[in-house]
Write a structure and sequence with these properties.
alpha/beta, seven-stranded mixed beta sheet, globular
């Protein structure tokens, strides 16, 4: 099979979907690999690294997209819709619940589109979302700490609080909505800085499981709206980290909730790639990462791991590599033989295949 790797073009997206090592594995299996020139540079892989393992470096995106199987990191942007066609299998993060326009294009062009975020094992875990969720949780903390600083430009002054605790200074306080991979990694990073962290989670079983572990400075509570509202007035940094696979993120925060927070507090909505968790959430970019609503700085970047491509590319591709090899050997047989991969199929033959995605898009496509 011909496997294409276009260069990512989303704002400040520096990852690449296939490492030279992964390309070499595909070549050894008899596949052709077409990598767009400079696609891997920001992740630490120059073109020679790909050609040295037998991959072909192509000059244009159109050439990479002409492959049978296209492997990406982020969803196609509007300028890439022209590459969609019935014979294409696309393997990437899709997040269609937040992007009905893309869903309509995939359906209209009868693309077999498989979303990393909906590949799901029988135990309910999401093996291709998990590594980037862990990275996103850590990056969210770095961003939150930055925007709590007073010096973010005249339009976006934070509260002037140091996230890391020091002797004689009061520790910052954080609230995290969701105790999955994003939430726990954010919590551990914050606690390591000396921040007092409260994690709110609606899954009682998960709370009980996590309660068996020892977390210094991390408090686990069952989510209720009242519990959240009691915590918001003293919250310096709020992290949105809840997830329903394939569906729109639960909208847990209204304007009236955010008004409870002090001016200059920070809300980092990691769930923005699934539509966001607040009435006030809207997508931002690294060119303009924050805006202010109700006095609270909102950071809603849909590709947080893209800021650390050398870390995140290796973490992502180590998880996707096995599935790419299976798909290259035959899409139909791969999905038939791997239930997790079959769960990942979002669209095929002009229809939406994933139940959660279908619910999120009901009436929109």
């Amino acid at each position: 099979m011909r496997v294409g790797v276009p260069k990512e073009i989303k704002n400040h997206e520096h990852r690449v979907a296939l490492t030279p090592e992964g390309a070499g594995c595909l070549v050894k299996e008899g596949h052709e690999v077409w990598v767009q020139c400079s696609a891997g540079v920001d992740s630490g892989f120059d073109d020679v690294a790909y050609t040295s393992v037998g991959a072909t470096v192509v000059d244009t995106a159109a050439q990479a997209w002409a492959a049978d199987l296209v492997v990406k990191v982020k969803e196609p942007l509007a300028c890439e819709y022209r590459y969609l066609r019935p014979s294409l299998t696309l393997f990437t993060y899709l997040h269609l619940a937040a992007d009905p326009a893309l869903a309509r294009q995939l359906i209209a062009h009868q693309v077999c589109a498989i979303g990393y975020e909906t590949v799901q094992l029988p135990d309910g875990s999401l093996p291709l979302l998990a590594p980037m969720s862990r990275v996103a949780g850590r990056v969210a903390v770095q961003l939150g700490a930055r925007f709590l600083q007073r010096e973010n430009g005249t339009c976006y002054p934070g509260k002037g609080i140091l996230a890391g605790a020091i002797e004689g200074g009061e520790a910052a306080r954080a609230v995290i909505l969701g105790a999955g991979n994003v939430g726990l990694n954010a919590a551990m990073a914050l606690a390591g800085l000396g921040v007092e962290v409260t994690v709110l989670e609606s899954n009682r079983t998960l709370i009980d499981h996590l309660a068996q572990r020892s977390f210094e400075r991390i408090h686990l509570l069952e989510f209720t709206r009242d519990a959240m509202r009691r915590l918001l007035p003293a919250c310096d940094l709020l992290v949105g980290a809840a997830l329903v696979p394939g569906e729109h993120a639960p909208e847990l925060l209204g304007r009236e909730d955010l008004r409870l927070m002090e001016a200059g507090s920070v809300f980092v909505d990691v769930a923005i790639d699934q539509g966001g968790m607040a009435e006030t959430s809207r997508v931002t970019t690294y060119d303009g990462p924050v805006y202010v609503e109700e006095g609270v700085l909102h950071c809603c970047l849909p590709n947080m791991p893209g800021a650390v491509p050398r870390t995140s590319t290796r973490a992502l591709t180590s998880a996707t590599q096995l599935y790419v090899l299976k798909l290259a050997a035959g899409v139909a047989s791969a999905c038939a033989g791997d239930s997790a991969l079959a769960q990942g199929v979002n669209t095929r033959g002009g229809s939406v295949c994933h139940e959660g995605v279908a619910r999120a898009l009901a009436g929109l496509v």
